[in-house]
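Q: I have 172 residues here and want to know how they pack in 3D. Can you give me a structure?
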Amino acid sequence: MYLASAREHPPAVAVRQQQRDVALTVHFIRDFSRRQSELFLLVADFLKRYEPADFQSIVDDDVNAAASALASTFETASRGVIYDHRPASLPAERLVAALKPLLQEAGKNGGTAFERDAAVVLRRVAEAVGDARAADVGNRRAFLDLVGRVIRRGNQETADESDRNTPRLIVP
């Protein structure tokens, strides 16, 4: 009974955090097309699940460097030049190596239009890192923490039995 009540009436701090998270997320995807929004969410979901092979966690600076390098790569590819831009740090390089195949799979048969969209989205990811860090100055993982709070997987395997039977339709 107490757990159900706590779930229905979260503390004010949690509500304010959710409101800030939603406001930042809406700001990040404010003028995107549908495909760009889907790409942004694909990248965010990837970042939420990403675990480096060497068990060292990544920080926002790694995400910024990786997103900027990949954006540059897609920008040059959209102009017909194949050149892989490299980030300066090893963790960012590993992140690029893991993220690039996912984006290539998402954009197969998309041509230069996809490459332009991917570049725009990755530039916005780099911008979002800066915005999230400005909102939470002392946190080196502000953007990654935000992504972890906002992106939720609809995975039935992890949902408990009561969540599976809950209707997903919200009626006013």
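Q: Anything worth noting?
A: The radius of gyration is 18 Å. Residues 34-150 form one domain.
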